Amino acid sequence: MKIKAGFVLRKVGEKVLVVPIGDRTKTFNGMIILNDMAKFFWDNLQENIELDDLVKIVCDNFEVSEEVAKADLIEFTEKLEKAGILE
Amino acid sequence: MVKVKFAGIVIQVNNKYSFIERQCANYLVDNDTLAQIVITVKDEDIEKEILDNPFSIGKGRAESFCAYREISKKLAEFDAFLLHASIVSYKNQGFAFLGKSGTGKSTHASLWQKRFEDVVFINDDKPIIRKEGNFLAYGTPYSGKRNFNTNTFVELKALYFLEQSKTNEIKKLSKEQAIFKLIPQVIMPENKEDIEKTLALFDELLSLPCYLLKCNISFEAVDIAYQTFLGEYNEN
Predict the structure, then answer these.
(1) What ipTM goes with this model?
(2) Strand locations in chain B, DSSP E?
(3) Are the Cβ atoms of A12 and B195 closer than 8 angstroms?
(4) Is the pLDDT score of B148 beyond 70?
(5) CATH placement of domain B80-235
(6) Which of B187, B188, B191, B201 to mutate to test the interface with A (most CBs of A within 10 A)?
(7) Residue ranges of the domains in chain B?
(8) pTM for the model
(9) What is the mean pLDDT of residues B39-49?
């Protein structure tokens, strides 16, 4: 899975704002705010990646168990999927 | 062909209908002024505007609306953007009232005018904001139903995001909270570089005091809004 193209990111205060541009505005007409963790997930979903590989990367970089990382990632990617941003 | 000046930017519109000249009467410049933006509205955009508009409008008015929309997409280059807000000037301070249509921005702005002496409407609906050191709010002839606008500018001092409420309450917003409310109220440009530029402008703009103002229609709402700003302003 990976995040579709057509987004611009910008730091605003402590968080990161994501807005669609160009053709992407036709399928996603909103905006997203990412905290640090979500930004990390987002960056690692720019290239096609399997869930289990992503879990491993998260665990390598953060003090978190595999179960928690997997649960968080599933929740995150499901949200993206619902918004039509994941492919 | 008509030439206007909005926010210090000279714009040429190659118009087919004369409506826009009347709408922009207070903002015209000589035809030999050098244009920084040139706009030609396409027929199909005029047709679309007529279809999409909930009110029955003619081609001239539609062309004028479309021209303003096209202009707003080209403002990033000038460190500017279009904001859906009602902005007043009081004691050379600009106060912007934002929110979805129907929330009561115009009503609230009008209360400021009744409450205080010498409050001027910069623009009641779609002012242009331009960063020139500080953020300046400019009047334009596109200012909503009542068409309150003045061909002048004021330095923006605070942003109030309004919500209708039985009682008056005010809360300071963080940048992250404010950006969520701000973005639906701007017309974004279309290409990547301009969007990035505009987002950078928002980041700076939101360093100004941003408030969530839950309010009813009363002078108390105005007082709470202004006093809160003054209190914070005087602390700094």
Answers:
(1) 0.76
(2) 2-6, 9-13, 37-39, 80-83, 85-90, 93-98, 119-123, 128-132, 134-138, 153-164, 169-172, 186-187, 210-215
(3) no
(4) yes
(5) 3.90.228.20
(6) B188
(7) 2-72, 80-235
(8) 0.90
(9) 96
